[in-house]
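Open question from group meeting: does this chain pack into something compact, or does most of it stay loose? Before anyone orders reagents, we agreed to write out a predicted structure and look at it together. Recording both the input and the output here so the notebook holds the full record.
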Amino acid sequence: MSNNVEMVNAWLYNNALNAEQRARNEAVRRSRAEAAEARAKKKEKNAREAAKNARAAAKSANNQARRAAVERSAAEAAAARAARAASRGETSSRRNKTNAANRAAKKAAENAKKAQANAKKAAANAKKAQLNVLIENARTQLLNVIKNNKMNKNAKKKKGTSIFRKAALKLHPNHHRGEEDLYEERFKYLGSLHDEFQKFINKSG
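Structure tokens returned:
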């Protein structure tokens, strides 16, 4: 009889130890997930700010390009008027004005070209920032799934796959002809996030 009591007590003691260990493991896992979520939220906020700034830069660059185009058009018109005056054999003063107008037209053309290049660069930066926001949103959603104690393992895996597929549709290089390189890197990174998520869920069981 005493042996049975001892066995029961040992079993209860071991169960208590196991439960305590599981609780500690769960607390550690949850703490790590919360820390990762905080980092992801910070990255998402920074990415949104970068996207906002990039859009503002693109808008400013486009405005500069438009102004440069107007200046170029005006300078070319002035150059054309001066050329017509020169062809009529007017004074050397008029010819000097023609040369000045030609220089102004050339300068305006250079400024317009630079402004267009800046606008293109700003637009590219805005696109990169927007893609980074999309990645951070997916990361945050996956972390929220990991933290959700009301979902079982299979439900978490299913939800994670849904999040991945939704983001993948927007990032797949085949959907963005001419920008494959830009999307390829982020698409692969999204895939690695999903793989890490699935491994974590399988391991946490």
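Observations to bring back to the group:
The mean pLDDT is 78.
The longest helix spans residues 2-87.
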